[in-house]
């Protein structure tokens, strides 16, 4: 459950003030945020993830007003409740697929359950690549690993920033479907932010900035 | 998943950088340690062996050579002096002890020194086994010789002429081991001690072989006037002797008197400049490798910025990020430092094994544990500072910005 109210943001060195519409998402409700570059898509996503402090307004995830948490508590909250998918650079090159997932669970202080990891990798078609390093993976495989990293810890909200921009049409659809499926399985809200019009038809709930 | 595993994987993923870092740091550690050890060995060698010898009297020539050959046993003697002349000097009331030494032979490169019973007391050498020399052709071995050549009481051997090991010029009389000294860590550990008679006898036999049947006593009386020694090691009763005797000997006799402390201080001054220069070079190298360490760490952290930011989004604390970097760096630095120690030791032993082929006298003085700790803590201070300096931007980093500016 996500509630965004009266949110504004201004970068310290810039005059422009971003104003964001109020957003209310019920449990398991998904949202696609569309917009051209420069309208503050990534800024909104980073505010939702608690990576940026808004100038005004509140973000509540499961009734927790995340920006009133202390630094450390916010870090811990983010680690446990939020799953992030980035456009690229989703994983650490010096670690294997398995080790990346282990690190994900370790840092959010969750038990590193090998069976859980195997089930997820199997589901995402990455199980044979378990012991492979990141640079041995293709773009599509990388994006699936990014999904695995964003859901392995059963987050309450999955935030995806341009998850499809570097993918071809087939992979684009596969990735969005997987994200939606995993969100449903873990009872999480899914928020996808993109300028990729291909994705539009795959969501019922759309917001254009 | 453990933090050190992430660090190890990071190291593994950039082997080239790791190797270069290890090598430069190991090299500078090696130089710093090596120079310290060399200096210590040299100082020890000098100070420890001249302690009780105030003056050396020998044949005219270089005073430094006389000291090096008769006190440190590192050089060829300047020549011989007449035993009777030396004895006259020894009779002076300013002198506490005057110990004649005579040498010119070796066994497997170890110098055979003919002297009196007081010689051992110069080095506080006490018997480990057996007894002192009672008659000619008996020897007592220094600790290292007995150990290195595996000689025991009752063993016999033939000496060869000169100070270098050779098979061409071997004397025909057997020397018998009657005693072995305890270890002193001084030059006597590497000397073979016998009485003056043995040296004279061996050499008279060469000149007048037909006298052999008449025995040693005959030689003693017959050739007493011609008997020669290499030098006389003198200790004074008071500093007055030190001031007057050398001058008198140098002026009035055809012998020369040299003061070991004075000569070796002079030598030390010359070599000291060398040591200082090498030390400075070593520190410059150390400074450069510190800089390399810092730049490497800084670069490494900058390259890993994105991953460190990623870990932060996973919920990692700044302390955990610091741990990742610290484990990684300290692994590299520890390996490098240990390698440096090994290289310093290996290098010095190699160097000394070449040098000792000529003069089996020098032993490497091991550095005290505090010396290692000193350099170790210096290295680790540099590393800690580098890590802290380099990690500071990471602690302060804006995760949002870092993640937005993707590589």
TrEMBL record, chain A:
Bilayer-crossing regions:
none
* Residue span(s) of domain ABC transporter: 2-208
User: GO MF annotations for this entry?
Assistant: ATP binding
SMART domains this protein is in? AAA (SM00382)
Q: Please report a single Pfam family linked to this protein.
A: ABC_tran
Q: For this UniProt record, give its keywords in alphabetical order, as a comma-separated list.
A: ATP-binding, Nucleotide-binding
Transcription found in the keyword field? no
- Write down the superkingdom of origin: Bacteria
Against InterPro entries, the record matches this protein to: AAA+_ATPase, ABC_transporter-like_ATP-bd, ABC_transporter-like_CS, ABC_transpr_LolD-like, P-loop_NTPase
The UniProt entry, under PANTHER family, shows: IMPORT ATP-BINDING PROTEIN, TRANSPORTER, PUTATIVE-RELATED
This protein is called what? ABC transport system ATP-binding protein
- Organism of origin is Wenyingzhuangia heitensis
Automatic annotation (TrEMBL), chain B:
Q: Which residues cross the membrane?
A: 16-35, 270-294, 306-326, 332-352, 372-395
Q: Where in the cell is it found?
A: Cell membrane
Q: Which residue range or ranges hold the ABC3 transporter permease C-terminal domain?
A: 280-398
Pfam families xrefs: FtsX, MacB_PCD
Main location class: membrane
**Every MacB-like periplasmic core domain range:** 18-199
Q: What is this protein called?
A: ABC transport system permease protein
């Amino acid at each position: 459950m996500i509630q965004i109210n009266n949110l504004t943001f201004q970068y310290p060195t810039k005059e422009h003030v971003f104003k964001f519409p109020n957003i209310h998402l019920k449990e398991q409700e998904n949202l696609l945020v569309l917009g051209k570059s420069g309208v503050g898509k990534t800024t909104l996503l980073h505010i939702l993830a608690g990576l940026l402090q808004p100038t005004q307004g509140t973000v509540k995830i499961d009734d927790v007003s995340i920006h009133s948490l202390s630094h450390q508590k916010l870090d811990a909250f983010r680690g446990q409740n939020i799953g992030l998918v980035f456009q690229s650079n989703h994983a650490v090159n010096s670690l294997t697929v398995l080790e990346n997932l282990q690190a994900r669970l370790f840092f959010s202080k969750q038990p590193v359950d090998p069976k859980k990891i195997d089930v997820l990798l199997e589901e995402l078609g990455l199980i044979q690549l378990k012991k492979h390093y990141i640079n041995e993976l293709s773009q599509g495989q990388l994006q699936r690993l990014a999904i695995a990293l964003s859901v392995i810890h059963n987050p309450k909200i999955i935030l995806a920033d341009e998850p499809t921009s570097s993918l071809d049409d087939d992979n684009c659809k596969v990735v969005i479907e997987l994200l939606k499926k995993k969100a449903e399985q873990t009872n999480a809200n899914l928020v996808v932010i993109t300028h990729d019009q291909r994705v539009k038809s795959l969501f019922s709930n759309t917001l254009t900035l | 998943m453990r933090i050190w595993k992430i660090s190890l994987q990071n190291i593994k993923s950039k082997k080239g950088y790791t190797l270069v870092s290890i090598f430069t740091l190991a090299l500078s550690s090696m130089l710093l340690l090596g120079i310290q050890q060399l200096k210590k060995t040299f100082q020890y060698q000098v100070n420890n062996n001249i302690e009780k010898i105030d003056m050396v009297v020998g044949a005219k020539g270089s005073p430094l050579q006389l000291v090096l050959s008769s006190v440190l046993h590192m050089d060829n003697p300047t020549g011989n002096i007449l035993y009777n002349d030396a004895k006259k000097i020894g009779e002076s009331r300013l002198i506490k002890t005057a110990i004649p030494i005579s040498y010119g032979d070796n066994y497997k490169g170890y110098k055979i020194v003919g002297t009196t019973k007081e010689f051992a007391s110069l080095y506080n050498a006490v018997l480990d086994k057996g007894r002192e020399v009672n008659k000619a052709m008996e020897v007592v071995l220094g600790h290292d010789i007995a150990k290195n050549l595996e000689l025991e009481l009752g063993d016999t051997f033939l000496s060869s002429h000169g100070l270098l090991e050779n098979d061409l010029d071997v004397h025909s009389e057997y020397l018998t081991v009657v005693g072995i000294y305890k270890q002193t860590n001084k030059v006597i550990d590497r000397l073979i001690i016998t009485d003056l008679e043995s040296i004279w006898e061996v050499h008279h036999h060469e000149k007048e072989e037909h006298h052999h049947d008449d025995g040693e006593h005959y030689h003693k009386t017959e050739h007493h006037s011609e008997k020669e020694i290499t030098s006389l090691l003198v200790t004074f009763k008071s500093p007055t002797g030190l001031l007057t005797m050398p001058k008198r000997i140098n002026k009035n006799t055809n012998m020369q008197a040299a003061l070991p402390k004075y000569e070796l201080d002079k030598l030390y001054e010359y070599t000291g400049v060398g040591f200082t220069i090498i030390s400075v070079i070593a520190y410059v190298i150390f400074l450069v490798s510190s800089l390399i360490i810092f730049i490497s760490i800084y670069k490494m952290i900058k390259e890993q910025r994105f991953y460190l930011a990623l870990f932060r989004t996973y919920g990692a604390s700044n302390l955990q990020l610091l741990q990742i970097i610290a484990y990684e760096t300290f692994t590299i630095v520890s390996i490098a430092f240990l390698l440096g120690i090994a290289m310093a030791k290996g290098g010095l032993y190699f160097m000394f094994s070449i040098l000792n082929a000529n003069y089996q006298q020098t032993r490497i003085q091991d550095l005290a544990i505090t010396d290692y700790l000193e350099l170790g803590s210096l290295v680790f201070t540099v590393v800690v500072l580098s890590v802290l300096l380099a990690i500071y931007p990471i602690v302060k980093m804006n995760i949002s910005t870092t993640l937005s500016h993707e590589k």
